[in-house]
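Researcher: Quick one. two chains, 1259 residues in total.
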Amino acid sequence: MYRIGVDVGGTFTDFTVFGEAEGRVWFFKVPSTPHDPSEAIQLGVRQIIDALALDPKSITHLGHGTTVATNMIIERRGVPTGLLTTKGFRDALEVARQVRPNLYDYGQRKPEPLVDRFNRLEVNERIGARGEVVDPLDRVQLDGAVATLRRNGVQSVAICFMHSYRNPAHEAVAKEAVQRLMPDAFVSVSSEVLPEFREYERMSTTVLNAYVGPRMRTYLDQFLARMRDLGIAAEPYTIHSNGGLLSARTVAAFPVRTCLSGPAAGVVGAAVIGAAVGARDLVTFDVGGTSTDVSLIKDGRPLFTSNRTVAEYPVKSPMIDIHVIGAGGGSIGWLDDAGALKVGPRSAGAVPGPAAYDRGGTEATLTDANIVMRRLNPEALLRGRMPISYARAHAVIEDRIARPLGISVEAAAHGMVRIANANMSRAIRSVSTERGHDLSKFALFAFGGAGALHGAEVARECGIGSMIVPQEPGTMCARGVLLSPLSFDYVRSEIMPAGEEAWRRVCEIFRDMWAEGSAWLDGERVPAERRAFRLFLDARYLGQNHEVVVPMPAVSADGLDDFLARFRQAHEQEYGYAIAGRTVEIVNCRLQAIGDVPQAPLKPPAGGGTLEAALIDRRDVYFGGVDGFLRTPIYDRDTLPQDATLSGPAIIEEMSSTLLVLPGQMAALDTAGNIHVRKHS
Amino acid sequence: MTGPVARKFDPIAMEVFSNRLLSITEDMGNNLIRSSFSTNIKERRDCSVGLFDALGRLVCQATHIPLHLGSLQGSVTAVLARYSADTIHEGDAFICNDPYLANGTHLPDITIVTPVFHAGRLAFFTANVGHHSDVGGSVPGSIDGGARSIFSEGIRIPVIRIVRAGELDEDLLNLIVQNTREPEERLLDLKVQIATNERGAAAVLELVEQMGFAAVQAAIEDILDYTARRLRNRIRELAPGSYSYTGYLDDDGSGVADPVPIRVSVHVEGEDLHFDFAGSGPQAKGAVNLTFSALEAVVYYAVKALLDPGLMPNNGMFAPIKVTAPSGTIVNADPGGAVGARASSCQRVAGAIFGAFHDLLPEHKRYAQHNNACPALTFSGPRGDRPGRYVYLETLGGGAGASLEQDGMHAIHVHITNTQNLPAEALEIEYSLLVEEYGIVRDSGGSGRRRGGLGIGRQIRATRDGTIFSVRSEGHVVPADGLAGGGPGGTAKLWKNPGRPGTKLLHSKAAFIELAAGDAIRLETPGGGGYGPPAERPAEALARDLRDDLISREKAERDYGSQKVTEAERILEARSGA
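Model:
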């Protein structure tokens, strides 16, 4: 039996195959096909079937991370969308939070709403803060509004009324009207998509869901058809932004939940792999071509947020808290007119890419700097499949950086890497102190094409003691898909001071959500023994406008005091103090329904050879002004012996990545095939 | 590069060092926001943190509110003016807020300054400022637009040693917090402010430990030199000469309706900029005055926004800039003048500086005037679900000015402020109020080749008797000017019970208006100015404006001419027929 994880990226589509009987993993990569991403998936899966001589029926699980929804938003390729909202609120989407994106630069603009104003229509109705009907719904006027949207050629309708999280009755009537009068339209209803208070964020999430809905459905249909063509019987899953899997039917209704799905899989994978070797507090460090993703894993669990944006539009569904930094292999180094050297935020991207790729790139990128220092293989990458022009890399660094600064080419390249590392380190420190964590207790989990290349220096700069690099870090997100459970998040907003009466209501809400979650798990055919529910309460002190998330092992009738104690503890961790005697206010109830996917244990890689046999080359690598060039052994990761321990300086190459071990550091393999790098003891 | 360079400038070391410094201020900022209690600091992020060297020069600042640019510097300067370096000891910390005695900008902004010692010598200062939601005075929130003197605005704190050799002066702290309306929250937030500086101090000392004191000092000099050099490069690109602009404030806050001029002359002198405010109106009777620190902060903000948004806020940035203003004017009040509601005037000062730069900047960098207001609404009334009264304060944005390439943004905060709104649902859960409308205001964008952004309309209904409403608004008389032939933005308007019996237009500084259940207040904020002659607006763009109801047919005909309107309508008809 085989399980396949897929991550669709901008340039490559990555595959990880897990053979349950063999207890091992295979990695594949094919070029992505942006016009129809499922084409590359089909191509890749067919290659896997051929290469491993599989019976398609033996593929019992196929999950994928996709950027289809995200790209549709970024490139504004969704369908013409309409909005029905409460009288007086059609511009909530436009006003947003009334802030400008940059304090000083008026060239940076608020994003244009995804629904044009003439398609944002108001309905005469009003529900108050306690769910009471202030003004009844005017059905005649509602039908008129729907008819207008139909006439305007709208294909998808978002419905978001005031306080609908508390009383969804009016939204339900509006949904029925749209279904009756526009039977072909996609409908996205705020009380179904995100029944949580704060109208702008709920409206934005509901509108994004509507905007990407129809095309996402088309994509899913193509994807499912292609998998059926391949003879795969298992139902394919999609990973969502909270790092869980969803069936196609759920994704079709809530496509907005797949925004940022690929990176989330990488973080979930990191948490599982780390926990398996006892590393439960991690900083994930995923360095790609144009950006670097950073997130925290505490106690084996990724940290979540519901404050993320996609192309600056808020998406309020819970997501793994990933911070994106505009620094990656393609980041461009440049000098300003006052003599400073900067790296990024501009990137050469995949096209033209670094000068060394010889595809027309003429700017000095971080990859070029790594090639000049010979940290990256100066002849070819991707196991020889991608030739490198050392001469071009050398020339751009010399022309653009070294000569104007009057320093050597190596020093210029090293300067660029130091600056990029300093930028990345600052982001890591900021992410951790924002949540009140002490980095010295964390390990850096480096992946992505270039994570292991920069990780050792970044860890040192941040005061992180060790680095863990998984196998084939360049395809980590595809592997993460294999390590993710099924999951779906539910939320209900009801704001009330925590007391006996409120607690009874909390118990009721959780009972309802539990039933809903169970029904969903039934639909996903998850057997009882693989089900789990995680419960959370968002709460704050009276007078605050900012909630902390309180994880609850269970919610029972006599659980109020336990909750209050946990709240104080969570407040202390999050904000550094608790206030005795102050009233606590409950804001949101959250439930995550989880269906665990069976995961056979990974056997340690075979690798019975010797260190000498894994040594494929030696080259002079630049380590900065003090060390200069050092003769450095180059190892092939796939043939490293299982108990290998080696001292820096050293470089370990594999298909999708290059790992740099600094002088004074040592690297060792663990039983799961990860490499640990730390200071030489 | 200019000036004698004694030691070789190391751009790589500087960039690495500057990231480390930014990490320290970011960490301080994160800690202050994370740990504070009050919404003002935690949610609206009305706070800033900074690191200074032993001479009191700003090295690095993390700012969330542009008005704090320079106001932290003022506090550190005040500490050094009050206490000579040899009387400052390890473990001390200072507190201040006073606009006249400690270079503050208004009383709610309380600053803590903490000296940092290395090897027994004063080496740095860490500092932070937070806007406290109340510091006493005549009204809850401590900002009374009608205040006539600083003495009615709250507790005045000159530079005081609040921590002495590691020992917090609890008596003094108690005196301060008991002079405010919510002592428990003030106590909590002030302790967080003190702890934030200590955290910053430990981080700086760790950096010194890593790099050595001499290397840190050298890198600081590099950063300050670099920043000054970078700004001077921008100034050298400007045509030398003098450029003036006069903007107007609706009135002086005292109820007299004469617009007050705010005049700035910008002198470009080689590599330096001199801002002179002679010709500005006399000191206001109401609380709309600026102290000199506030004026400097607005100038620094404007220079950064106009010339180099990425410029690091540090002493190097201040070096090429000179600010002068006659005393006893609205932009440089004499001691004692009320300053609480300085925000509106600061916006007008920023607008005047932007205006003066119109002839200095390349065409694509010029903006028609933004809304240049910061209207604040205050509702107070009985709580429904528990005893006591609530106080709800909110500031509203407006339209942004248009530019050569683009229409102005709708509904944003500009210049010295950028705080988020309170969601209508959150507001209704918390207070006995109901939001009837929250949208953009038709016809409020200045006409032009590029249209000015639209202002905000917010209409709120009281759901209980005994609700009290006050406002400090601006731009009801003087609109945002258009540029290069563009029309002005719409002015602000304030009504009680709009569109229902008993409608009444209210004054922009109306105070203590009593509302019964069912009464509503509506404020429409100013729009931004237009850019370029309206005749040059593409019919396609006007068609979109009409389709989206951003402009009425009447205003369109008046400003753009009936021929263009007909053309635009034809475009719309063709499209709906297709």
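Residues 77-218 of chain A form a domain with the Dna Topoisomerase Vi A Subunit; Chain: A, domain 2 fold (CATH 3.40.1360).
Researcher: Thanks, that's what I needed.
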